């Protein structure tokens, strides 16, 4: 799930900046009154429009972005497949039917030594489950099924849509607060420089507040991981879900000392304890809660 969140947040920040810059250049959404003061009601509406537009555009691009950035090879379930591909497609489709999904997710594999998998997409109808070659090589069949069940549970739970709504609220406050602070900063410079300073300050503070706002999104992500674990246990069986988590723990212990990016299965485990910028809670805590 970490990959999914990373690309969603990255896309969101870029889209939000682009929309914000365009709106700042064009005479759209002017929230400065004739008296030179901020009209807070107008600014709040303006911020909500930009914020939710940015988050929904990011959601719409999420599946395409993940494919391009990760080099995911989408498997045609009706075409020729090798043993690995056939096994992954079978698991995704079987678990998706068990989860009550009416439309089967796209299934993909990408070449990477990292042990990882993710699910993304703008809706249950247009979703993607992708696994790395490293995951298929390192994990046994039951562990792989537990991992895939976890990702299918994210789709069935509608986590991407819920995250998009949360991100829209966060974006609204990011846009709102960045413009208030930028306006205040521009009051401390010469009048002829104020518009330039105001414009630059908006971009700077929007980036800063976006980073701070991501803490809220990360907290939601950690919370939803427990739900996806329970959903994965319901789909694949509690023993397989627990085995998947314990296999990840054993794997990370075995290669302790290597770079984090090579051991971040589902991005659900890091060598360090979970922090406010972690997308996943501590693995030991997840095993404990699942039990």
From TrEMBL:
Cofactor(s) in the UniProt record: Zn(2+)
Segments forming domain Peptidase M48: 86-290
Enzyme Commission no: 3.4.24.-
Top EC class of this enzyme: hydrolase
InterPro entries given in the database record: HtpX_protease, Peptidase_M48
The entry's keywords: Cell membrane, Hydrolase, Membrane, Metal-binding, Metalloprotease, Protease, Transmembrane, Transmembrane helix, Zinc
Example GO BP: proteolysis
Zinc found in the keyword field: yes
Ranges annotated as spanning the membrane: 7-32, 38-60, 169-189, 195-220
Cofactor note: Binds 1 zinc ion per subunit.
Principal location class: membrane
Subcellular location: Cell membrane
Single annotated GO MF: metalloendopeptidase activity
Domain of life: Bacteria
Membrane topology recorded in Swiss-Prot or TrEMBL: Multi-pass membrane protein
PANTHER family tied to this protein: PROTEASE HTPX
Family recorded in the similarity comment: Belongs to the peptidase M48 family.
Protein's name according to its UniProt entry: Protease HtpX
Organism encoding this protein: Ornithinibacillus hominis
